[in-house]
Amino acid sequence: MSDTPNNLEALRQRIDQLDSDILRLISERAECARGVAEIKTQDDPQTVFYRPEREAQVLRRIMELNHGPLDSEEMARLFREIMSACLALEQPIKVAYLGPEGTFTQQAALKHFGESAVSLPMAAIDEVFREVEAGAVNYGVVPVENSTEGVINHTLDSFMDSSLRICGEVVLRIHHHLLVSDTTRRDKVSRIYSHPQSFAQCRKWLDAHYPQAERVPVSSNAEAARLVKTEWHSAAIAGDMAAKLYGLTRIAEKIEDRPDNSTRFLIIGNQDVPMSGEDKTSIVVAMRNQPGALHDLLEPFHRHQIDLTRLETRPSRSGVWNYVFFIDFKGHHDEPRVAAMLEEVRLRAAEVKVLGSYPQGVL
User: ACT domain location, by residue (predicted)?
Assistant: First the structure.
């Protein structure tokens, strides 16, 4: 027992030395990043510093090399922040997201780009598209589907008239909490604010615990959290970021009906992303209105052994009862077998639009 203080002191000294080593290595990495920026700028003053495929490769490598005790995803998140800070030395990334501040979309943006990115809230999905198209920001983040409630049609429709490319994806586990303010009389809650999607995702819990409370849909969970600050008899359904932003208290945690509730977000930009080794491609296909059209569309995917991950149908804007198909599949459009498959689809379809090939979400 007498050796315990000495052992503890030795461990603390070792931690101090390791912290110094980590600090030195991070600084050295930042200097390398600055050198990369200088070389890129000399070759092309308009160069794009952020490389989604390179970042995905680095994070995958870190996860493969990790042997614990920290979880591989946790280690990758640490490296994401280091990379985000180093990239900000080259050129701070501006990212538009579906706001207001405190939404799950902002949380997804920071998860993908790191805390060093400059995130700017937009009032609607089409505004995110416009900001990226105008060059006011480098990238945009928009929700595309939820595991409980399905596809977000507004996002799919926005791609119909846009020239933007999908540059990445991020999947966020969605946890909803019931939040109140310091002035809320918790035994008198008669009104609950939230986004309609969140109400749908927490329907069973609300029916069991607050069957008489009025459910008031608002534009976002962050707006719900803001409203609660002004009323003594109200609560909000929102996430951790909104709770922290508005200083609210959780009186019930993780009230979503499905524990695996998650939302997929897309990163939109103006660049084509090279192959990373583990990629997805998204396309929009307009088929001629004839019997067997869907079979004709899907047959090349089967024959070339292309793995479909999503197939959605939306009404076409060109005519009544005509439809377009939004398709996600594994692979990059520069891969020979994918390119061959796409060429066959083009011969069978009225129109094919490649929305982008991009790295599969790492985190």
Answer: 282-359
Answer for the pair 232, 183: CB distance below 8 angstroms, yes or no. yes
265 carries an active-site annotation? yes
Check 113, 265, 325, 326 and give the catalytic one: 265
Domains of the chain: 19-89 (1.20.59.10), 94-173+264-269 (3.40.190.10), 177-252 (3.40.190.10), 279-359 (3.30.70.260)
Question: Alpha-carbon distance 125 to 121, whole Å?
Answer: 10
d(CA 64, CA 222): 37
For the stretch 245-260, pLDDT in tens is: 999 999 999 999 998 8
Measured CA to CA, the distance from residue 16 to residue 307 in angstroms comes to: 49
Encode pLDDT of 277-315 as tens digits. Answer: 999 999 999 988 788 888 999 999 999 999 999 999 888
Catalytic status, residue 263: yes
| Catalytic residue selected from 105, 148, 184, 263 | 263
Comparing 218-222, 267-271, 325-329, the range with the smallest average pLDDT is 218-222
Non-local (6+) Cβ contacts of 125 within 8 A are 98, 142, 152, 154, 155, 158
Burial of 86 (0-12, 13-18, 19+ CB in 10 A): buried
